[in-house]
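Q: Sequence in, structure out?
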Amino acid sequence: MTSSGATERVQATVTWAGGRQTHAALSRPVARIDQLSYYPALTQRIRALAGQGLDTTAIAGQLAAEGFRTPRLHDRFHPGEIQHLIRRLGLRPGLDHDQRTGQGSLEPGQWWLATLAREIGMPAATLFGWLRRGWVTGQQDTRPPCRWIITADSTEVERLRVLHQLPAGYHNRRRWTDTGTPVDTPKDKEPGNHGREDLRSSH
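A: Exactly. Output:
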C-alpha cells in the first residue's frame, strides 16, 4: 500500500496466490484540511460561494452536493468549519455584517457570542454557559438587542476549541484533582438552567 504524500489518496495492491495482483484506489482520513489533495479546488469553490453571498450552512450544503468531503471523510462540512475557512482565507469577517455596537464597532479580537460559537463549532448555549462561569471574557452590548460581545484573540479561540473537544466530565475531575476542592456546578460543558432569559439576547 502506497500513499500520495500526506493526502487522503492511497493506492492498494493485493497479491493473490499464484501472483495475480489487484490494484485499488482508496481514501483515508487525514489530520488537517490542507492535506486534502483537492484543498486548492475546495478553497477556490468556497471563495466563489462566499462571493455569491451564501451563508455557511448553504455553502456546506453546496460543497456536499458537489462531492467535497471533510478531512475525516464525512459527507458534509460543519458550518463552523466553513466559518473558520472563510476567516482563514481572509474573506468576509465571520459572515456577520452587522459589526455595530453601543460603543461603536467591534474591535479586533471581539466577537458576537453566536459568531464565536459558530467559529468554534459549538452550540451558542454552551458558550453562554462558559461565559456565566467566567471561562470566557465578555460584556453585554448596550445597543438593542443587547447581544453579548466576547473578547478572544486567535490564541484564545484555539484554547476554547480545544476545551470544547474535551470529553464531558473532564473539567470536574480536573478541579477535584488539582485543587482538592470542588468548584462550580456539576455539568461543566452545558449551560445549565440559569440565565435562560439572558441567553435569548446572546444571539
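Confidence is low (pLDDT under 50) at residues 93-97, 176-200.
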